[in-house]
Recover the amino acids of this structure.
């Protein structure tokens, strides 16, 4: 990006990618960026080829991610979902502790993180929002709940497998 362009969050880029993908017919640290964009790449791949996704990211956002890198990520969803969950894990743990909630429940509860209900009845009652909890909520809203529900549901089996692995 050049100096005159605004800095855009990864979540905004992901949303833009998914929005752009919907117009298609149905037919630096790039590795880290692929991980952060993975849910959006999964959603976009339903309507766009890896080549089209790569071209979109470069033309629209100046991000160069090769077709090979995108294809590799799509061919190994377990690995990339797990790396994406690694990014969320500290926030998930903080939210679990604060709300005494199970991640397998709240990560798929769209109502819990809507701005109207946010940050939660318990928090409002206590009138004290701890920094760790506030930060966790921001990360979850920005990186997880910004992903459309269908794509999050595709991640569910990988999350379940991950949780079973940690229980052993």
């Amino acid at each position: 990006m050049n100096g005159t362009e605004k800095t855009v969050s990864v979540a905004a880029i992901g949303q833009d990618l998914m929005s752009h993908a919907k117009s298609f017919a149905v037919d630096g640290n790039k590795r880290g960026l692929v991980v952060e964009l993975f849910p959006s790449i999964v959603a976009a791949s339903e309507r766009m080829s890896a080549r089209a996704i790569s071209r979109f990211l470069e033309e629209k956002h100046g991000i160069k991610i090769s077709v090979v890198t995108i294809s590799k990520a799509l061919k190994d969803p377990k690995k990339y979902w797990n790396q994406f969950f690694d990014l969320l894990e500290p926030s998930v743990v903080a939210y679990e502790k604060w709300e005494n909630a199970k991640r397998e429940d709240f990560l798929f509860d769209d109502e819990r993180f809507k701005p109207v209900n946010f940050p939660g009845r318990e928090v409002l009652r206590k009138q004290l929002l701890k920094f760790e909890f506030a930060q966790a909520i921001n990360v979850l809203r920005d990186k997880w709940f910004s992903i459309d529900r269908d794509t999050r549901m595709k991640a569910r089996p990988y999350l379940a497998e991950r949780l079973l692995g940690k229980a052993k």
Residues 10-75 form one domain.
